[in-house]
Specification:
By secondary structure, the protein is α/β, with parallel strands linked by helices. Helix content is 32%, strand content 17%. It is built from 7 helices and 8 strands, in the order ββαβαβαβααβαβαβ. It has an 8-stranded mixed beta sheet.
C-alpha cells in the first residue's frame, strides 16, 4: 500500500462528464506518473522512470471503500453515474490487483471501464483482468516503430509488434465494448501515411468507436503542437473511409 500520501483523497473522484463514458466516477488505482510510457503530450509531465513490472499499490479493500463512499455521496447530491472508470494518472494495468478490484466493485451495480495504453496487453494476466470489465479503451497513437517510440517513449523492454498482436487478440475475444484513442501531434504522427496505416490496423479490430484527440492542455514537452485543422480533416476522411464514419469521432473541443 502507498505510504506517506492521503490515499483517501486521490482514489475516487467525480463523477465527471465524459464524451466517451457519459458521467463517470474515476478510480485512481496507482500513484501519479507510474507508467510504462512517458508520452510527449502527457498533461502530467514526464514520467521520471518508466516501469513494466506489475505490483501492488493500494489495498483492494481501500479502493472499494473509497469508491463506495463516493457513490453514496453522489447519490445524496443527486448526481448520476454511468461508469466506474479506472483512469489513473499513469497506467492502470500495472496494478496487479486490477482484476480483483473490478470483481469487488461489480456488485455495486455499475458498468466498469478501464482506460489503458495497452502496453501490457500481451501479458495473459493483464488480458484476464481486463476481460472482467464492461468497456476497455486502448490507446493506439502509432503503428510504426519509430513513431511509436517518438510519441509514447515506452519502457525499453516493450515491443510494438507484440503489443499490436495482443490488442488484436484482446479485441477479438473481449465480450464487452472496445474503443480506441489516438492523440495527433503536429509533425510527429500526423503524416498521411501514418494515419492510413493506423486506419488499416484499426479497421481489423472489433471496435465500437475510434476516438481521435489533440492536445488541449499543457503537454510534457513544450514544443508539442496539436495537428492542424487541415490534418484533422484529412485524418477524419481517411479513418472514416477505412472504418466507416459512424465508427470515428474526434475529441478536439
Amino acid at each position: 500500500m502507498l505510504t506517506g500520501v492521503r490515499a483517501e483523497n486521490i482514489i475516487a473522484f467525480g463523477p465527471v462528464p465524459s464524451r466517451r463514458l457519459g458521467r463517470s466516477l474515476g478510480i485512481n488505482n496507482i500513484p501519479a506518473k507510474t507508467c510504462t510510457y512517458s508520452c510527449i503530450y502527457c498533461q502530467l509531465g514526464r514520467t521520471a522512470e518508466t516501469c513494466n513490472k506489475r505490483r501492488r499499490f493500494y489495498e483492494p479493500e481501500l479502493i472499494f471503500r473509497q469508491v463506495k463512499e463516493k457513490i453514496e455521496q453522489s447519490r445524496a447530491a443527486g448526481e448520476s453515474i454511468d461508469y466506474l472508470a479506472f483512469v489513473p494518472d499513469g497506467e492502470p494495468t500495472l496494478d496487479v490487483n486490477l482484476g480483483q478490484e473490478i470483481e469487488m466493485l461489480k456488485p455495486l451495480g455499475f458498468k466498469i471501464a478501464v482506460l489503458t495504453n495497452a502496453s501490457l496487453i500481451d501479458d495473459a494476466e493483464v488480458e484476464s483482468d481486463l476481460a472482467t470489465a464492461d468497456l476497455v479503451s486502448l490507446k493506439i497513437d502509432a503503428v510504426s516503430e519509430d513513431v511509436w517510440r517518438q510519441v509514447n517513449r515506452p519502457h525499453r523492454s516493450l515491443d510494438l509488434h507484440s503489443l499490436l498482436e495482443g490488442i488484436r487478440e484482446f479485441a477479438r475475444d473481449f465480450k464487452g465494448q472496445v474503443i480506441s484513442e489516438t492523440m495527433l501531434i503536429d509533425g510527429v504522427n500526423d503524416r498521411h501515411e501514418e494515419i492510413r496505416n493506423l486506419g488499416e490496423y484499426l479497421s481489423n479490430l472489433r471496435l465500437s468507436k475510434a476516438y481521435v484527440a489533440i492536445p488541449t492542455r499543457p503537454p510534457a514537452e513544450n514544443w508539442i503542437r496539436a495537428a492542424s485543422d487541415y490534418t484533422i480533416n484529412l485524418a477524419y476522411q481517411t479513418l472514416s473511409g477505412l472504418l466507416g464514419s459512424n465508427k470515428v469521432e474526434f475529441l478536439i473541443g
